[in-house]
Amino acid sequence: MSSVKSRFIISSGLIVLLVVVAVGAWSVVNVMKARDSFSATDQADASAATLLSIDTAHAGVSLKASSDSFVHVSATGKYTGSTPPKLTTSTAGATITVSQSCSGDCDDFRLDISLPEKLAVKVTTVDGGTTARGLAGSLDIRTRSGGIDLTDLSGALALNSTTGQIHVAGATSDRFEATTTDGEVRAAFRTAPTMANVTTGDGGVDLTLPSSGYYIQATSANSNPQIDIPVDRKANHTVTVKTDNGGIDIHH
User: Fold this and answer.
1) DSSP readout, 25-52?
2) Is 22 helix (H, G, I), strand (E, B) or coil?
C-alpha cells in the first residue's frame, strides 16, 4: 500500500513539474514573440529651415552632417504591444520637427539623423543619449538620464543632462554651456571659447583649453580647483566653473 502511495506522490509531483515547465516555456515563447522589430525612414527638405527640433522619450539620437540640403532620419528598435511606434517628420515655417513615440514598451531605440552641417539643432530626450560629430550649427541638448558625447563641433553649445555624463572633444565653439546634476563634464577645445560656463552637482569637471588669455572663476564645495592656466582678469575669454561635490581641473 505504501509503495502505491509513493508512486502516486511521485507521479503527481512529475505532473506538476511538467505543467510548470510547460507554462514557463509558453510564457517565454510568447514574450519573445511579442518583441517585434521596428524600422522606418523619413526625410525633409531643409533648404529653407533654420532649426531642427528632435523630441523623443526613449530613443538614443545620433547626429552627423549630410551631403545634401535634406534632413534624413532612420529609426530602429524593438517594441511590445499591438501598436507599432511612430516616427513623424514635419515642417512648420523654418522649423523641422522629428518626433518618435511608443505606446508600449520600447527597447534599443535609435534615431540616426543626418542634416545640413550649419543647421541649428535642439534635442529633447528623457533617457536616451545623444552623439554628434562634424556639425557647425548651434546645438541645444536636454536629457534626463542620457549621456552627451560630441566631437568636432563649431557651433554654440548648450548642454543639460540630469544624471548623464557630458563629453566634448575637438570643439571650436565660441560659446559653451554645460549643466549636470550627477554627471561629470569633460571638454577639450581646439580654439579658445569666448565664454565657457559649467555647473555640476556631484560630477567632476575637466577642461582642456588652448593657449590664450582667460579670466577663470572656479569654485568647488569639497575640493580645491586645479588651475594650470594663468588667470587674467582683463582677458576676452571667460571660464566659469561651479560644482558641489566634484573636482575641477582646468589645463592646456
Assistant:
1) HHHHHHHHHH-EEEEEEEEEE-TT-SEE
2) helix
Q: Residue 26 has what pLDDT?
A: 45
Which pTM does this prediction carry? Answer: 0.86
Q: Residue by residue, what is the 3-state secondary structure of 108-124?
A: EEEEEEEECCCCEEEEE
Query: How far is 102 from 57, CA to CA, in rounded Å?
Result: 9
Q: Where are the domains of the chain?
A: 36-116, 147-252
State the Cα–Cα distance between residues 118 and 107, nearest whole angstrom: 31
Q: Give the three cell numbers for residue 93.
A: 515655417
- For 21, the enclosing helix (H) or strand (E) is helix 2-34
In single-letter form, the type of residue at position 232 comes to D
Whole-angstrom distance, CA of residue 28 vs CA of residue 251:
54
Handedness of CA 235, 239, 240, 243 (dihedral sign): negative
